[in-house]
Amino acid sequence: MSNLNFYNNGLIQPVIDAEKPNSAINTHGANILIEQLYKFYGDVKVLEDLDLNIQAGEFVAIVGRSGCGKSTLLRLIAQLEKASYGEIKFQSVRNFREGIGNDDIRVMFQDPRLLPWKNILQNVQLGLPKAQHPLAESLLEKVGLKDKATQWPTQLSGGQRQRAALARALSHSPRILLLDEPLGALDALTRLEMQSLIERLWTEQGFTALLVTHDVSEAVQLADRIILLDQGHIAHNFQVNLPRPRKKSIAFAQLEQQVLDAVLAT
């Protein structure tokens, strides 16, 4: 796999469509081009000859049955694992010759992974230069945790801890945010609140978002595009042409059922 600082020679054309209703308003993200990607674990083939182009500022959801390669794909993009074959390339939309480094990519997991010996503000400030510590306070306010800044992770609810994890990920102003089922363990109401929060912050900051989820309704709620993986291949590619903010409607329900039927058919 190529280094994260790679910028390609015109293979990805920057795309900013200010009139497209589903796009982030202020595109801060990066293009992701995946070419002929393979991943093996011994004799087990998880991803095979996968090609995918994600535009800067796009919100893409990946769905599919357990074991289809969703989380593996995210880990490869985050360079937490290495591909067996193929390439993942990045390009900043802001500057053609500007490389994308490790600090430009952040991952939010299902487990918030907060350090229990640091308070919430200190967790959000992790890795930030001292001069940028006020940004952490601002983000805690955005996610509704300003009054919880001095509390310990064990004093917060599951939803509050995930809000803190989101603030920590965004404190580094990532170009790419990878979301690996971050809402899976939350109750239904908290999950809806977190979906709205993620969408609002994505719209404000314009990062490229890639969400792995088993919840088809969540994918339709958040994504510009839904990718269905099946045995390491892209089985379907659904465009979500619904205005934001999204509400349950006939069109929403029809697309949700279409995606669900495709998942069940794999």
UniProtKB/TrEMBL annotation:
<dbReference type="InterPro" id="IPR003439">
    <property type="entry name" value="ABC_transporter-like_ATP-bd"/>
</dbReference>
<dbReference type="InterPro" id="IPR050166">
    <property type="entry name" value="ABC_transporter_ATP-bind"/>
</dbReference>
<dbReference type="InterPro" id="IPR017871">
    <property type="entry name" value="ABC_transporter-like_CS"/>
</dbReference>
<feature type="domain" description="ABC transporter">
    <location>
        <begin position="32"/>
        <end position="256"/>
    </location>
</feature>
<keyword id="KW-0547">Nucleotide-binding</keyword>
<keyword id="KW-1003">Cell membrane</keyword>
<keyword id="KW-0813">Transport</keyword>
<keyword id="KW-0067">ATP-binding</keyword>
<comment type="similarity">
    <text>Belongs to the ABC transporter superfamily.</text>
</comment>
<keyword id="KW-1278">Translocase</keyword>
<dbReference type="InterPro" id="IPR027417">
    <property type="entry name" value="P-loop_NTPase"/>
</dbReference>
<dbReference type="Pfam" id="PF00005">
    <property type="entry name" value="ABC_tran"/>
</dbReference>
<protein>
    <submittedName>
        <fullName>Aliphatic sulfonates import ATP-binding protein SsuB</fullName>
    </submittedName>
</protein>
<dbReference type="GO" id="GO:0005524">
    <property type="term" value="F:ATP binding"/>
</dbReference>
<dbReference type="GO" id="GO:0016887">
    <property type="term" value="F:ATP hydrolysis activity"/>
</dbReference>
<dbReference type="InterPro" id="IPR003593">
    <property type="entry name" value="AAA+_ATPase"/>
</dbReference>
<keyword id="KW-0472">Membrane</keyword>
